[in-house]
Amino acid sequence: MRLLVTGRDGQVAAGLLAAGQARAGEEVVAIGRPELDLARPDTIIDVIAGAKPDIVVSAAAYTAVDQAEDEPDLAFAVNATGAGKVAEAAARLGVPVIHLSTDYVFDGTKADAYIETDPTAPLGVYGASKLAGEQAVASANPRHLILRTAWVYSPFGKNFVKTMLRLAADRDEISVVSDQWGNPTSALDIADAILHAAALLHGDKGFAAFGTYHLAGTGETSWSGFARHILDTSRGVGGPWARVRDITTKDYPTKAKRPANSRLNCDKLAATFGWRCRSWRTVCDEVVERLTVC
After folding, report:
1. Which of 104, 114, 126, 153 is catalytic?
2. CA-only gyration radius of the chain, Å
3. Rounded CA gap, 273 and 196, in Å?
4. Under 8 Å CB-to-CB from 14, ≥6 apart: which residues?
5. Rounded to an integer, what distance in angstroms lies between the CA atom of residue 119 and that of residue 97?
6. Among the listed residues 35, 29, 33, the one whose alpha carbon sits nearest the alpha carbon of residue 53
7. Is residue 146 classed as helix, strand or coil in its secondary structure?
8. pLDDT below 50 — which residues of the chain?
9. DSSP string of 221-269?
10. Which residues, in sequence order, are bridge partners of residue 99?
11. Angle between helices 280-292 and 223-236 (to 10 degrees)
12. Angle (CA) 224 227 230, round 5°
């Protein structure tokens, strides 16, 4: 099975490349800029066709949440138009597309964890562009899996875990928002889930449960709770540590609004694919130890 992943430098692409190397019979190829540029739709169809994939994983995206408020045209070009072209390219080849989306399609006002059929209401340009991307993907290729995930971290790229470890090396105390809640999700688990789903799609040509699914770590916490766990784990393995001071969203204003509740219910994914993310604490421990122990 040959998987083509859009985006070469993202956390999920890196996770898929690492996981693919460890699995016999699975080849993962990542293509990014300049060969494949989602902001230039004319580059997409031919590049994907030339890779001859069995399944396309649409992972590349514009992810600068605050900057998107100043660059809405670029955010929509990449996350909506570009994502739709990736799905169209897969459809032309007669293969499924697995597209990554986000918790930011919701406004965060629900009291409980979001399910796939809850109304969407993005608070900013980034979320709106990702929602438009979901719609473009679904329209372009009926054989699609849209996987909404949240609070992604890993040993790769830029993410919250790395930021906390870096800040703790220079500060005694770090102020972190305590009134936004979600499910920290490892890109390593996302990669494993994608490979699991891809194998099922590849082996079952009659698969009929295409659609939207939630894919997030098991267990919930606030950003400050996440930070404390990261730093306590780091201290336990000889890495940097700092105190975490709880602050509110109002204490840390950002250009783009964030949902107060980003929790995602993943029961649909578990029921369909027999797969669920591990406890975020367990995976976080593994990632922190990997980043701090030489």
Report:
1. 126
2. 19
3. 8
4. 154, 156, 157, 187
5. 23
6. 29
7. strand
8. none
9. EEHHHHHHHHHHHHHHTT----EEEEE-GGGS--SS---SB--B--HHH
10. 58, 146
11. 50
12. 155
DSSP, res 68: G
Beta bridge partners of 154: none
- On whether the CB atoms of residues 129 and 72 are closer than 8 A, the answer is yes
- For the chain, the structural domain boundaries read 2-157+184-220+263-278
Other CB atoms within 10 A of residue 139 CB: 12
CA distance 141 to 94: 9
* pLDDT for position 276: 95
Tokens at residue 215, please? 């894919």
C-alpha distance across the termini of the chain, in Å? 34
**CA-CA distance, 26 to 1, in Å (whole number)?**
5
**What token pair was written down for 251?**
């204490």
Q: How far apart are CA 100 and CA 134, in angstroms?
A: 9
* Cα–Cα dist 90/271, whole Å: 26
Tokens of 256: 């783009």
Rounded Cα distance between 77 and 125, Å, is: 12
Question: What phi and psi, each to the nearest 5 degrees, are found at residue 182?
Answer: -170, -165
Number of H helices, E strands in the chain: 10, 12
| Distance between CA atoms of residues 254 and 64, nearest Å | 12
Select from 190, 153, 150 the least CA-distant residue to 5. 190
Could you tell me which residues come within 8 angstroms of residue 74 by beta carbon, excluding any fewer than 6 positions away? Answer: 39, 62, 68
Cα torsion for 159, 160, 161, 162, to the nearest 10°? 50
126 is known as an active-site residue = yes
Are the CB atoms for 264 and 148 separated by under 8 Å?
Answer: yes
Location of structure tokens 């996981």: 19
CATH topology of domain 2-157+184-220+263-278: Rossmann fold (3.40.50)
DSSP 82: I
CA-to-CA distance for 164 and 251, rounded, in angstroms? 18
